[in-house]
From TrEMBL:
This is ABC-type xenobiotic transporter. One of its GO terms (molecular function) is ABC-type xenobiotic transporter activity. Belongs to the ABC transporter superfamily. Drug exporter-1 (DrugE1) (TC 3.A.1.105) family. It is a peripheral membrane protein. It is found in: Cell membrane. Residues 19-251 form the ABC transporter domain. It comes from Streptomyces phaeofaciens. Its main location: membrane. It comes from the Bacteria.
């Protein structure tokens, strides 16, 4: 048996996790529990999505991992460095793109990038080359001499990501990278994030409240609710755990207690139908064959005295995963500002 003497970058399987957080707890004044035992592991060279509604604790997690806040308890390492013991080492290894732009609106795109590089100790032709490279990569070369205040939302966001990358970090944190962007700019940003991870071997931890964003970009997602992870895995595995199709029925009026009991009785024994969830006017059912289940389901609902407004059949989405693990629909948990365009994959 020969021993390998290769010094090349270790494969994903053998590299230590780029981010590892265990049992993070954070309480803000006024007894607000932002984090309640948060665990996160991100393998090096992958894109990881922290998905959750507004207020779930995503930003607080990012603040702790980027050394901007201290947990009340728990521990975390980023790029192998302990966030509490060696915050300076962590800061050198990471790039952070916060929710609000860090760019100076009066300075030009190029000036912003140069300043950011100098803050990281870069100078001379090395810095010039890096700035040109990033302007090119984020299609900002033509706008490089213009003040940032004249940039579109998409251009500003691209500049924000470029600013986070100037010093070639190992781990990039993107806090809600596409919030507020129009659909076209959002798609362009998704393509860019995908390229960054694929080509540059960067580790990316992104937070999002867009289900579609997590589904499309992240190799693994953790669904966060009330300060902790309720479930994690690959988007496909999470959806795959939900057997069959999702059938959603909207009733004209919410069912009372008696109606629910009747409904349980009527749907409980139907072949191929599992997991009946009833919330207000909405009934969600998982069925082996969604299309075949609809007429049977409608008949059962009629017998239970429920008037149906609409019925839809879909492949399971991350919304259904969230419903199962958090016990309520995703849109109802946050502000409802969701982008579900494109639907389930
Ligand atoms: N500085 C603070 N002081 C008091 N409470 C805070 C503070 N920052 C966050 N919180 C509260 O902690 C909880 C978690 O907030 P956090 O910003 O981490 O959630 P989030 O999932 O990132 O949501 P969002 O998408 O709105 O940023 C919320 O209830 C929030 O109101």
């Amino acid at each position: 048996m020969s021993m390998s003497t290769s010094t090349s970058t270790p494969s994903r399987a053998t590299r230590a996790p780029a981010v590892e957080a265990r049992g993070l707890v954070k309480t803000y004044p006024g007894e607000v529990t932002a984090l309640n035992g948060m665990d996160v592991t991100v393998e090096a060279g992958t894109v990881f999505g922290l998905l959750g509604p507004n207020g779930a604790g995503k930003s607080t997690t990012v603040k702790i991992l980027t050394t901007l806040a201290r947990p009340d308890s728990g521990s975390a390492t980023v790029a192998g460095h302990d966030v509490l013991r060696h915050p300076d080492r962590v800061r050198r290894a990471i790039g952070v793109v916060a929710q609000n732009s860090g760019a100076d609106p009066v300075a030009t795109g190029r000036e912003n990038l140069r300043l950011q590089g100098r803050l990281h100790g870069m100078k001379g032709t090395g810095l010039d080359r890096r700035v040109d490279e990033l302007l090119e990569r984020f299609t900002l070369t033509e706008a490089a001499r213009r003040p940032v205040k004249g940039y579109s939302g998409g251009m500003r966001r691209r500049l924000d990501v470029a600013l986070g990358l100037v010093h070639r970090p190992e781990v990039l944190f993107l806090d809600e990278p596409t919030t507020g962007l129009d659909p076209e700019a959002r798609t362009a940003m998704w393509d860019e994030i995908g390229r960054l991870a694929g080509e540059d071997g960067l580790t990316i931890l992104l937070t999002t409240h867009y289900l579609e964003e997590a589904d499309r970009l992240a190799e693994r997602v953790a669904i966060v609710d009330r300060g902790r992870v309720v479930v994690s895995g690959t988007p496909d595995a999470l959806k795959g755990e939900l057997r069959g199709d999702a059938v959603h029925v909207e009733l004209r009026t919410a069912l009372g207690e008696a109606g629910r009991t009747l409904l349980d009785g009527a749907l409980g024994g139907l072949p191929g139908v599992h997991e009946v969830l009833c919330e207000g006017r909405r009934v969600s059912v998982r069925a082996d064959d969604g299309a075949a289940a609809v007429p049977v389901l409608l008949g059962a609902l009629e017998r239970a005295g429920a008037a149906v407004a609409t019925a839809t059949v879909a492949r399971p989405s991350l919304d259904d995963v969230y419903l199962r693990y958090a016990g309520r629909r995703y849109a109802e948990a946050g502000t409802g500002s969701l982008a579900l365009a494109g639907g389930a994959r």
